[in-house]
Design a protein that fits this description.
This protein has twelve helices and twelve strands. The chain is α/β, with parallel strands linked by helices and about 325 residues long. α4 links the parallel β3 and β4. The radius of gyration is 19 Å and the shape is globular. It binds S-adenosylmethionine (SAM) and iron/sulfur cluster. The site of iron/sulfur cluster has 13 residues, from α12.
Length: about 325
């Protein structure tokens, strides 16, 4: 129960993503239904319990930690968790503490995040058209997110925009998003829509757009050069000669990146998913609540990593109207 976490396929697990809440102040059409029901509070781990689990993973060699959700910045007192975890940055046990956010609360929290040691964040933004923004997110306001981005930029936080490519929705805006990111000094990553969770209609099937198509479209307007740049995530990057910015592509549907998968995901109820595309999960909740100095927790983590599967199995299939994975993205945080 010591040393790095190595799975049965020889991959070292050094990246943990934690969904700190399943709740959100947006209702993005590809992610949630309008009338989502959320977990009762009693099922959600306390921030102290989340901190204990994260610290156990860091002790076992996790170097990158991303807090996500739901919307992580709507969880009450989440800054306590950031502050507490930031001690691992100071000792260099942790290389990076970061967040994926919809940006709605950034205006309020960006300075504090910077102060704590957050150097890089991902902000999800699918359009620069205020009306379209409100229709995709149902409850969000673009001007609010833009103000948050300004504050984060001034606080010296590097920003990567995450854009879900949606055919017939934002596919006429990619060029505009790329020039805007170039002007602002942001990187941008395009994501394929994934069949996660029941969202109340079958729109996702029509909106699915392979990123090979996105890239072909971009080649008409930009000079894209493949580069070796890598983050802890699965994106492949190109450089845009005209703007100097980077574009990433995350293609779970058309490219299998499982062979280099270094990550596991913890839900806010304490379930550890060893693969985004598989149902198997390990219960860390019981273990973190056991009052035995962390022994049960370490044993549960080892047992879970020993079950990490080789790969996933997503399919968007028009014959099947049910999502191939019934879990919502807000449970595991993408
Ligand atoms: N609320 C935060 C946000 O939106 O950035 C963090 C959680 S959100 C679930 C994380 C990422 O998952 C976002 O970039 C979002 O666009 C993406 N996402 C949600 N549902 C998706 C789906 N069905 N397919 C692909 N990406 C999805
Ligand atoms: Fe909320 Fe993020 Fe899902 Fe949108 S993608 S509903 S912001 S969790």
């Amino acid at each position: 129960m010591d040393g790095p976490l190595i799975d049965p396929h020889g991959r070292t697990v050094d990246y943990l993503r934690v969904s700190v809440t399943d709740r959100c102040d947006f209702r993005c059409v590809y992610c949630m239904s309008e009338d989502m029901s959320f977990l009762p509070k009693k099922d959600v781990l306390s921030l102290e319990e989340i901190e204990l689990i994260c610290s156990a993973f860091i002790y076992r060699g996790v170097k990158k930690l991303r807090l996500t959700g739901g919307e992580p910045l709507v969880r009450r007192n989440v800054m306590w968790l950031f502050r507490k975890l930031s001690r691992h940055l100071k000792t260099h046990a942790l290389e990076e503490l970061t967040i994926t956010t919809n940006g709605s609360q950034l205006e309020r929290f960006a300075d504090e995040l910077s102060d704590i040691g957050i150097r890089r964040i991902n902000v999800s933004l699918d359009t620069l058209d205020p009306e379209k923004f409100s229709s995709i997110t149902r409850w969000g306001r673009l001007d609010n997110v833009k103000r948050g981005l300004e504050v984060a930029k001034r606080a010296n936080i590097k920003i990567k925009i995450n854009t879900v490519a949606l055919r017939g929705v934002n596919d006429n805006e990619f060029d505009n998003l790329i020039s805007w990111c170039g002007d602002e000094g942001f990187d941008i990553t395009f994501i394929e829509v994934m069949p996660m969770g029941e969202i109340g209609d079958s729109a996702r099937l029509d909106q699915y757009m392979p990123l090979s198509m996105v890239r072909a479209q971009l080649n008409n307007s930009w000079t894209l050069k493949d580069i070796a740049y890598k983050t802890a995530g699965p994106a492949r990057y190109v450089k845009v000669e005209e703007t100097g910015g980077r574009i990433g592509f995350i293609t779970p549907m058309t490219h299998n990146f499982c062979e280099t998968c270094n990550r596991v995901r913890l839900t806010c109820t304490g379930m550890l998913y060893m693969c985004l595309g598989q149902e198997d999960r390990a219960d860390l909740r019981t273990a973190v609540k056991a009052d035995d100095g962390g022994d049960s927790l370490m044993a549960a983590i080892d047992e879970a990593i020993g079950r990490k599967p080789k790969g996933h199995d997503f399919i968007i299939d028009r014959r099947r109207q049910d999502p191939s994975n019934p879990r919502h993205m807000s449970v595991t945080g993408g």
